[in-house]
Amino acid sequence: MVSTFVHAADIPVTVYADAGYPPYSYEKDGKPAGLYHDIVQAAFSHMQGYKIEVHTVPWKRGMALLKSGTGFALYPPYMNTKDEPWTWPYSQPLFEEHVVAYCRKDVIAAKPRKRWPEDFYGLTIGNNAGFIVGGEAFDAAVKAGHLRIEEGKDSETNIIKLGMKRIDCYINDRVSIQWTLNQLKASGKYHEGLAHAELAEAIQIAANQGYLGYTSRDKGRYTYKSDFVKQFDAAIQQMKRSGEMDTITRNFFKTHQ
Question: How many helices and strands, by DSSP H and E, does the chain display?
């Protein structure tokens, strides 16, 4: 559950991570794992003066901690000051994700699905609990009753629901969907074309950066915030300039095919 990077110095800091968003951020054997974990751990190693622990939590709980000011930082939110005004500041961007709609093949074959969200009206769309990834037009369509959103706790839950025809499509990052689906097939939990529906990508919805987001509701509780933010951003910029970021990303995907 806890991953720790210890410096000789001092200030204890807890950073929260999404527990159910593989391969980017998840819990494995009781410890945080994923691409974002590799990135932030490397950044922490360039920082001075902190003893940093990473705790995995369900996404909605992590957001609630930032909203109440009782959590210092959480990764990896997209920048969304309209719906999540309590998350500020955001770090330097860590990685670009591509949000897509994955659907059952029979849903895609039923009619053209070229426009988002208009061509998906009347469908039930799966989403990870607390994720806001469909865009403003999608949110408006949900409120107007043109389509329905159904939340599941994580990627695995939603893909199983999609395969069981309990939802029509699922929106999330492309790599996360593909990775989780492959893991489910390898473990015998998903039998495409047999017990479960065949799936395919219908449309790309957006490209978004993932960040380390900090609470703006702490009322000065975290006296070290400005220094931490400055050091973390400097570390990320240094990692990008030196090629370390590219190496981390390349090595991660090489070992997580």
Answer: 8, 14
Dihedral sign computed on CA atoms, order 12, 216, 36, 199: positive
Give CA–CA dist 234/218, Å, rounded: 23
What predicted TM-score, i.e. pTM, was given to this entire model? 0.89
147 CB neighbour count, 10 Å cutoff? 19
Closest to 224 (Cα-Cα) out of 81, 47, 86, 67: 47
2: CB partners within 8 A, 6+ apart = 31, 32, 53, 54, 55
**DSSP 8-class letter at 11:** E
Question: Where do we find the tokens 């590219």?
Answer: 246
Task: Give which of 203, 196, 207 is closest to 159, Cα–Cα.
Answer: 196
Cis, peptide link before residue 23, omega less than 30° from 0? yes
Tens digits of per-residue pLDDT, 139-193?
Answer: 999 999 999 999 999 999 999 999 999 999 999 999 999 999 999 999 999 999 9
Secondary structure (DSSP) of 169-207: EEEEEHHHHHHHHHHHHHTTS--BTTTB--EEEEEEEEE
Place of tokens 């849903």: 107
